[in-house]
Design a protein that fits this description.
The chain is mainly alpha-helical. It is 47% helix and 10% strand. It has seven helices and six strands. The strands form three sheets. Strands 1-2 form a two-stranded parallel sheet. A hairpin with an 8-residue loop joins strand 3 and strand 4. The chain is elongated, with a radius of gyration of 25 Å.
Length: 191
């Protein structure tokens, strides 16, 4: 949108409310600076008197309160999500985020399932680590690559990916950790 302003004359950007344009004060300042630079204003459906050009103290107060309420609602939603994730984690369930290599989450299901091909890689990596205790992460990655194993994206393993897998050993043993919470996971152990 901002890039488009430099090539086309735009009088207004129409939004439901200003929280659709920015989520923080820093972004707000940057967006407003660009809009002012090109003589553009904001028309907000839920904030009909909003303008980045008017200096009316009443509008300033009302719009500031609306933005404050938006921030409060975002914090409230984040708190509810955190409570829900903590509850799931306490029970050993998957609380969201990127699925650990070796597992998959199917749409509509709440628990992780083993991804057979990736689980094979995990098992082999821990075998190699056990057999060759002094091998570097790079050497372990090289061994996986030499044996034809690939990442989720179908690429060669790097030492960073190997470290990420090795660092999740307890997870692969069936222990679920979320923040400071640890429980027996509802997911099946791979090693």
């Amino acid at each position: 949108m901002l890039a488009h302003l430099s090539s086309v004359r735009i009088d207004y950007v129409i939004v439901l409310n200003t929280s659709r344009l920015w989520r923080s004060d820093i972004v707000k300042v940057l967006i407003q600076r660009e809009l002012k630079r090109y003589g553009c204003d904001i028309k907000s459906i839920e904030q009909p008197f909003y303008s980045i050009h008017k200096k009316d103290p009443n509008d300033f107060l009302v719009n500031g309160l609306m933005e404050l309420i938006d921030q409060y609602q975002r914090l409230e939603i984040a708190l509810k999500l955190t409570k829900g994730r903590n509850k799931k984690a306490k029970e050993g369930g998957y609380a969201g985020g990127r699925v650990t290599f070796g597992y998959m989450k199917q749409k509509g299901e709440k628990e992780l399932k083993i991804h057979n091909n990736h689980a094979e890689v995990v098992k082999r990596l821990f075998e190699l680590k056990q057999i060759h205790r002094k091998w570097s992460l790079s050497r372990l990655a090289e061994a996986l690559n030499d044996e034809g194993y690939q990442t989720t994206q179908g690429k060669a393993f790097t030492k960073v990916q190997v470290k990420r897998i090795l660092d999740r050993e307890s997870f692969y043993q069936g222990i679920y950790t979320y923040g400071q919470k640890q429980a027996n996971g509802k997911h099946e152990a791979i090693i």
